[in-house]
Amino acid sequence: MSRRSRKDVPAQGAGRPTVSVCRGCCCGTEKIPGVDHAAQLARLRSGLDGAATVRAVECLDACEQGNVIVVQPSADGRRAGGRPVWLGLVNDEHAEQDIVTWAAAGGPGLADAPDILDLYVFKPSRRVSAGLDG
After folding, report:
1. Is residue 33 predicted with pLDDT exceeding 80?
2. Ramachandran assignment for 89, one of left (phi > 0), alpha (psi -120 to 50 degrees), beta (any other)
3. Which of 2, 94, 113, 128 is the most exposed place for a label (fewest CB within 10 A)?
4. In what order do the strands lie in the sheet with 69-72?
5. What is the mean pLDDT of residues 47-57?
6. How do strand 18-22 and strand 53-57 relate by DSSP bridges?
7. CA within 13 Å, CB half, 45
8. How many C-beta atoms lie closer than 10 Å to residue 1's C-beta?
9. What integer best gives the mean pLDDT of the chain?
């Protein structure tokens, strides 16, 4: 994750990060019990309205980490060295809020993620990540 200070963030209007929320075969289903999956997606969309693009995607093939969320950098974030960050086991509202805070501040490459999100980060196989890392 990025360790840049806010003063290093390029001017607004240079794109937005993308938050991809897995809603495939396991994530977003009753296979992950105790989570209101529709409410989770709605909270992310509401919290990031205008600050990041939030999209529900098909299975990201990391089911053992469900619910999976990938925070992808904006174009400026990528130029600053940011890369997609895969977060797994995102099954509580506190983690969602930390993701909202980070993505709204610029996301990978432009803003530091809250330290607690380090507990959720995982590295998918190259085959799995190829579709989003490109």
Report:
1. yes
2. left
3. 94
4. 53-57, 18-22, 69-72, 85-87
5. 96
6. parallel
7. 9
8. 19
9. 88
Report the C-alpha gap between 117 and 11 in whole angstroms.
Answer: 25
**For residues 92 and 22, what is the distance between their CA atoms, to the nearest angstrom?**
15
Arithmetic mean of pLDDT, 109-113 = 97
Q: What is the mean pLDDT of residues 4-15?
A: 48
CB 83 within 8 Å of CB 73: yes
Whole-angstrom Cα Rg for the chain: 14
- For the whole model, what pTM was predicted? 0.84
Q: What is the rounded distance in angstroms from the CA atom of residue 74 to the CA atom of residue 107?
A: 8
> DSSP label at 54?
E
Whether 87 and 68 have beta carbons less than 8 Å apart is answered as yes
Q: What is the pLDDT of residue 131?
A: 59
The DSSP 8-state label assigned to residue 108 in this structure reads T
Q: How far apart are CA 29 and CA 41, in angstroms?
A: 12
